[in-house]
Design a protein that fits this description.
By secondary structure, this protein is mainly beta. The protein contains three helices and 15 strands. The chain has a five-stranded antiparallel sheet with strand order 1-7-6-3-4, with no helix packed on it.
């Protein structure tokens, strides 16, 4: 019987591109036989194949690009849960939470929606950032939660995401074994906070060391409790950290 695969695709999400399991400590020691493959196809809303789209799994520097036929292939993936990211100039990025088993081949199809006529990369990038950060600024004006801008992050000269979060009173950053770092609510030591990147809720608890570095972050929102969180979350009682990437 083939392994069960769960796919939750959400379009319109900006990406911090990379490729890594959310449990990087499990990568070493697994045999080549247990590694899996992702075969993907990317098209536009008219089902026309899209080349030059970047596909990756959140967390590490490995990237693949679709060919003219819209296809991409990611190989030697350990079993586990991942966030797959797709990015292409002129199109709204797409993210998908996936689960893949041992020695499995996962075949996925994605549709990307055009957001603007692409004159050049800078024009498209600026429009996407402005739209996202406008909502960020509107919520900041309401006075709920803790907000950190890219300028503030840069001023702290932080190397890792955990270094930025340590400065927030409602967040307790805990270093674990196997290169693991977790964010807990200061309200209780056994309550891991829900982390959401560009609208995608990561499995809880999420390893901070597997997430984008501070230099890739446009802004962060931290909410200590469920009363003021601006989205539905499966773990909002422990607080939520919203991360918006460049």
């Amino acid at each position: 019987m083939a392994p069960t695969v769960r796919l939750l695709a959400r379009p319109g999400i900006a990406a911090a591109l990379g490729a890594l399991s959310l449990a990087p400590s499990k990568v070493q020691g697994q045999s080549a036989r247990s590694r899996s493959v992702i075969d993907g196809f990317v098209s536009d809303s008219n089902l026309v194949a899209l080349g030059e789209a970047t596909a990756s799994l959140l967390g590490s520097p490995l990237r693949v690009t679709t060919g003219e036929n819209g296809r991409f292939r990611v190989v030697a993936i350990p079993a586990g849960q991942y966030i797959l990211m797709l990015h292409r100039v002129g199109y709204a990025p797409v993210s998908a939470g996936i689960q893949i088993g041992d020695a499995d081949t996962l075949r996925l199809s994605f549709t990307m929606r055009r957001i603007v006529t692409a004159l050049d990369t800078m024009v498209v990038s600026a429009k996407a950032m402005v739209a996202r950060m406008t909502e960020f600024d509107e919520r900041r004006k309401l006075g709920f939660g803790t907000f950190i801008t890219a300028e503030q992050i840069e001023g702290r000269h932080a190397v890792a995401l955990g270094d930025v979060l340590r400065t927030i009173p409602s967040v307790n950053v805990v270093d674990g074994g196997s290169n693991t770092q977790l964010a807990f609510s200061t309200r209780t030591s056994s309550c891991p906070m829900q982390i959401v990147i560009d609208g995608v809720q990561l499995p809880t608890p999420a390893n901070l060391r597997a997430l984008p570095p501070p230099s890739d972050i446009m802004g962060m929102e931290v909410y200590a409790g469920p009363a003021t969180i601006p989205l539905q979350s499966s773990n909002s009682g422990c607080g939520v950290i919203l991360i918006w990437t460049k």
